[in-house]
Specification:
216 residues; alpha+beta; 2 domains; 4-stranded antiparallel sheet; two-stranded antiparallel sheet; 38% helix; binds zinc ion
Length: 216
């Protein structure tokens, strides 16, 4: 989930019924009960199990609707107006608590990914290896963009990508294999090889490494 409006993560909401800090939770896609959306990506919900809204709600719902459920006190971002949400269990919403720090990081990463994808169209003319490498090395980037970036690596013909790839830990071995194939091609096209002792790039025909002086 990506929140468009990050400022909501800075908000602090205190439950008026129990004075505890309300949790920032991912909003359910529809307003439970009447099918309307909340018009918000997140909701602030009091998940305190001692909260009177929650503890007294079971009886109220039983009396009014005859089923087993209760309420959680809830507020919308930018508002202190008190609302309640019906919940069927104590666990409801505990799985959709948003960690603001993780969300901020994810958003920053997502923005970088989007910018890098947009830059791919002209990366060869612009010799823009950075945007391509952003995607190649981003383990959370979507596969389509990453695959495109890996293909563009050989067109860019920039040997500086080799070290970064060799030092990266790939979670997906398929991407790693594709990158290794690109490196093999780049080295061949540029008449280079990697020294087996120091990993520096040297001429294909060299018998002695110019960096570590090892005999090959
Ligand atoms: Zn409360
Ligand atoms: Zn060497």
């Amino acid at each position: 989930m990506i929140i468009q409006n990050l400022s909501v993560l800075e908000e602090e909401h205190i439950c008026p019924d129990c004075n505890s800090k309300m949790a920032c939770c991912e909003a359910p896609p529809v307003h439970v009960g009447d099918g309307l959306g909340w018009g918000s990506e997140v909701l602030f919900i009091c998940l305190n199990d001692e909260c009177p809204t929650f503890t007294n709600g079971w009886k109220k719902v039983e009396a009014n609707y005859g089923h087993k459920a209760t309420y959680r006190s809830m507020q919308l971002p930018g508002s202190t107006e008190q609302n309640v949400m019906m919940v069927g269990s104590q666990m409801a919403f505990t799985g959709s608590i948003i960690d603001p720090e993780a969300m901020r990081e994810q958003n920053a990463r997502y923005r970088k990914e989007k910018e890098a994808i947009a830059a791919l169209d002209n990366c060869v003319e612009n010799k823009d290896i950075d945007s391509v490498m952003t995607l190649v090395l981003d383990e959370s980037a979507r596969p389509a963009g990453r695959n495109r970036a890996i293909l563009l690596l050989s067109k860019l013909n920039d040997l500086s990508c080799i070290d970064a790839i060799r030092n990266h830990t790939f979670r997906n071995t398929e991407f790693e294999q594709k990158c290794n194939m690109v490196i093999t091609k780049l080295l061949k096209d540029n008449f280079k090889k990697e020294c087996p002792y120091c990993a520096e790039l040297i001429k294909t025909q060299a018998n002695k490494c110019m960096h570590c002086k090892a005999d090959l």
